[in-house]
Every structure is written in structure tokens, then in C-alpha cells.
Amino acid sequence: MSMQEVENAKQVKLDFDAECPSCSASIEFNPATGKLTCPYCGFETAIATPEQEEEKVAQEMDFLKAEERGNFNWGVEKKTVICKACAAETIYDVLQVADSCPYCGSNQVMEATADNTLAPNGVCAFEVTDKQAGEHFQKWIKGRWFTPKAAKISAKPDAFKGVYLPYWTFDSKTSSRYSARYGRHRTVTDKDGKTHTETDWYSTSGFYQEFIDDHLVSATTRYDRDMMRKIEPFNLLNNKAYKPEYVAGFLSERYSVGLQDGWNQAKSEIHDHLHAQISSKIRWENNADVVSNLRFSTNHDDITYKYLMLPIWLSSFRYKEKVYRFMVNGQTGRVGGDAPISPLRVTIAVIISLMVIAMIWYFFMSE
User: Fold this and answer.
1) Which range among 41-45, 97-101, 120-124, 160-164 shows the weakest confidence by mean pLDDT?
2) DSSP readout, 184-247?
3) Could you list the residue ranges that cross the membrane (predicted)?
């Protein structure tokens, strides 16, 4: 570590006492019971439920009133955490919210925010255990047709690592004015008796409104985004107001994609969604076959956001000296990742596809 990083190190307090009152070991959140559990003596305790109804789930936050909107650079700042169990000092990246002490193994749950970052206001707790994640992985890899049989038999995931990753969700009332051209196809027979399709074109314009609810944007740059998309969706309605107890025993990370950049990404994705919705509206209203030259402008009103921590199991397996990584959705068990491909199976699939196409073409020509 550089001298500058050492100078930037901050001492961080723990948010709650993660010590078992029975045997003094570290307690952790148990997805199977939804309680804090000691893995050594079996002590269990429930996580306190807020009395106020509005404090039980993550609340929508006013986007325009958010003070901290910038990105946060992973690894630039550091912080020092003093373990309450063994007094060891450990240097962490400032984005980390939870980890375990490398000296005694006790859970370190740190304060959820720094002076220049927003605090999470909600968490979707783990509902799938690491054992269940392994079962979902076995079903997933057995269902991959192009994966060699030997890989399906031998693939054993390494130890699972549970991690809470940061996400933004955005709500917005959208109002769009649009103009476009739509076409209706008709079949025309020429003087030689041959038929062809012609399209009659018309102009249209209109107004479209839609409420966008909980549009999800990843707030981390550390993990494979394509892989993360494969394990979506999450059950965002089943969230709880953030408590450090929920992240006890798991890794967890602050956002590195800031609120403003998250909203910019959300707006782009919402624009694509609205393009498809307005096109469908024009086709349905005008009994049209095609839509072209669609142009629209959108106003976003009453924009709100949530900063959620979502649960993911990380693991990998090895096949022929190559490591394949995968993720499991900690709520649903949905799996996404990489797996070996059998060239023989791909070749067989291509040959079968070509044979089917040839047969269809043959019967079509015979008719």
C-alpha cells in the first residue's frame, strides 16, 4: 500500500455487536431461518422488526434531493477496521461494508456510509442457502445441451461465497409525444399472375404515458454484467429496510456507479423500452404491419430511487485445467455463468438444423 493510501485510511466503527452472547463466536445471518445464528453453539436470535410500517421496507427517495450523486472509485480510499474480537487491525477498500476478520474469522460489519457516499436504504435478504445454490447449479449444468457429458458429471462447485451487491432502482412517471409512419401490407397480383407484397404508408402522432416501477441498474463495476443479467430478475418487492444484521456473515459492497450515472443508464434503457411500447401501440391502434421513423421526446416526473443490497452466491468449477465462474441468485436460485462447450455437440446440432431446413425446403418446392 502506498503512503498516500495509508494517510487516507480511516478508522471505522462496527454497526452492531456480531458476537454470540452464549459462546462469544461470530453470529451470522441464516437464509434458512431468517435469523441471526451462531454456527458453533447453535444460538439463534430474531432480527428486530420495526414497529413503524414505513420502516419495514425500503422507502422511495426523492432523486432531485439526493446530495451525493457521483461515482465512487473502488480501491482508491482505504479504511482501518479494528476487530472487536481480537483487536487486530485490517485495511479494507472503503467500499466494503462487510467481511470477516482474516485473523480470528469474526464477522466485520462496518458502517454503511461514508461522508461522501449514500447509505443503502434496503436489502433483499438471502433466501437460498449455499447448499441449495449447489443444487440449483447441478440442475443448471445438466440442462446445458452443448456442455460435454464429462463436465456435467465432474463439475463440482468450489466453496460458495455469499455477497451483497449494490443496485439502484428508479421510478418515473413518463410522458412521451411521438410521431411516426406506419405501413399496411397488401398482396398484389401482376399481369403475369405472380404475387408480391406492397406497403401503403401513413403518418401518425400521439401521446403515450407509462409509470416505470423499480427499473433496476447495477451499481458495481467489479463483476461481469452479462453474467449478472442472467440471474435476474430479483423479487424487489420482498425487500426490508436496511439493517447491518442482514449482511452479517457475508461480503458486501458499496456502489461504485454513482446515482447520476445510474440514472443516465436507466434513462437510456427506459428509452429503448418506450420505443418498443409506442411501436406496439401504433401497430395495435392502426392495424399496422410495420412502424418506421418513430421519433419521440419524454418527460420524467416524480423520479424516485432506492439503493438496495441484493444477494448473490459466487462460485466456480474447474474442467480440464480451466476455471469457469458462475453466480446464483440468492433469492430465486437462478443460475448464470460460463460452462465448457463440446465442439462435437455443436457440429451435430448444426447438421441436424441443416437437415431440417433441407427437408422443409424440399416439401415446399414439391408443393
Assistant:
1) 97-101
2) EEEEEE-TTS-EEEEEEEEEEEEEEEEEEEEEEEE--SSS-HHHHHHTPPP-TTS-EE--GGGG
3) 344-364
